[in-house]
Amino acid sequence: MIRPNSTIDAISAGEPFIGPERIMRERGLDSMLRLGANESAFGPSPRAVAAMSAELPHLAWYGDPDSRALRETLAERWATGLDDILVTSGIDELLGLVARCYLEPGESAVTVAGTYPTFAYHVLGYGGRVESVAYRDDGTIDLGALASAAHRCNAAICYLANPDNPSGSFVDAEAIAGFRAALPARTLLLLDEAYAEFADPAAVPERRTMPGIVRARTFSKLYGMAGARIGYAVAPQALLAPMLKIRLQYGVNRNAQIGALAALGDEPFASDVLERTARGRAAYAALGQELGLPTLPSATNFVCFDCSSRERADVVLEALLRRGVWTRKPGRAPLDRCVRVTVGDEAAQAHFAAELRAVCSRVTA
């Protein structure tokens, strides 16, 4: 009998993400308000759309395997060397490269129980073990407990999303530096900064390489290019060099490279997205206060509404979905009492608010 290798065979079957397309098919829905994947409600920059559209006749061409033009622009923005930048097919690909390069079979990686799941997905797939610590009850991350766990299991990698998904919590640059110092010297800190642009710029670690840290960034959130699948790593060259041995040479598509480069040049558009997202977070907070669903502080493009119990959150989630509003909820305690909602544009916010009010009028605590 033909069988997969023992590492893969031992992993329980599961689906980290069920997309809205499948939900619509299974429920017979013709349309849906998409507020479940933290996709940008404001779309990509018009400059990016124009640049990508102009190059569509050349879709038969492969992209530059070096992503040279994009890396040059990023290196300038980060005031670092060209070889300190690695462009990947979204952060998800980068998470896999880090796991393959820095984790021996049987070794441990540490993270927060219930955080973005794709890193753990890769760790298990490459034969590693995942050790995790719980969120605090308020959704913040106990960095001390995470560092202690890394020492306890002699972790090869520590994964930290900052700002965090799904809680939206954020720790500042000083805390990150202290956390890196508290980790074992042999532990690589994989810092997922997918939502960093939405946080207070003065509190985010400055744009530079940091010893012992691989910083992951994406064009999916602020720049509205999730479907293009493009992101990048910033790290000392010595940490990125092993990944060059195993990365897919043509894994990043050409139009994504072109769009990302154009997006970086459209600062007014990015600033507008940040301003509208901040207003949307404030509107969600006011809505939550009105309905008795307090929101957790968020430094992202989404907000968690606290429904006070897992059971009530499940009811709210399902009731919204029945009304054509797709949201998500964290799967692990203590955050499984929350419903996570992407900040939509102004029309989507109004639509969501009306539906949530209708749901809450029928759902008891």
* Top-tier CATH class of the largest domain: Alpha Beta
* Oligomer type: single chain
- Give the total of domains: 2
Q: Please describe the biggest sheet, giving its number of strands, its sense, and whether it closes into a barrel.
A: 7 strands, mixed
Which structural class is indicated by helix and strand composition?
alpha/beta
How many distinct helices? 13
Strand order of the largest sheet: 2-8-7-6-5-3-4
Fraction in helix: 25-40%
Number of strands: 11
CATH architecture of the largest domain: 3-Layer(aba) Sandwich
Shape: globular
Unreliable segments of 5+ consecutive residues: none
- CATH fold annotation of the largest domain: Aspartate Aminotransferase, domain 2
**CATH superfamily descriptor of the largest domain:** Type I PLP-dependent aspartate aminotransferase-like (Major domain)
Roughly what is the average pLDDT, rounded to an integer?
Answer: 96
Strand content bin = 5-15%
Give the structure's gist in a few sentences:
This protein is of the alpha/beta class and 365 residues long. 40% of the residues lie in helices and 13% in strands.
How would you portray this structure in words?
- The chain is of the alpha/beta class and 365 residues long.
- It folds into two domains: 6-43 and 268-360, Aspartate Aminotransferase, domain 1; 46-266, Type I PLP-dependent aspartate aminotransferase-like (Major domain) (Aspartate Aminotransferase, domain 2, 3-Layer(aba) Sandwich).
- The chain contains 13 helices and eleven strands.
- Strands 2-8-7-6-5-3-4 form a seven-stranded mixed beta sheet, with helices on both faces. It has a two-stranded parallel sheet with strand order 1-10.
- Strand 5 (157-161), helix 8 and strand 6 form a beta-alpha-beta unit.
- Helix 3 (46-54) packs antiparallel against helix 10 and helix 5 packs parallel to helix 6 (118-125).
- The longest helix has 25 residues, at 267-291.
- The chain starts with 5 loop residues before the first helix and ends in a 5-residue tail after the last helix.
- Residues 32-353 form the Aminotransferase class I/classII large domain.
- This is histidinol-phosphate transaminase.
- It catalyses: L-histidinol phosphate + 2-oxoglutarate = 3-(imidazol-4-yl)-2-oxopropyl phosphate + L-glutamate.
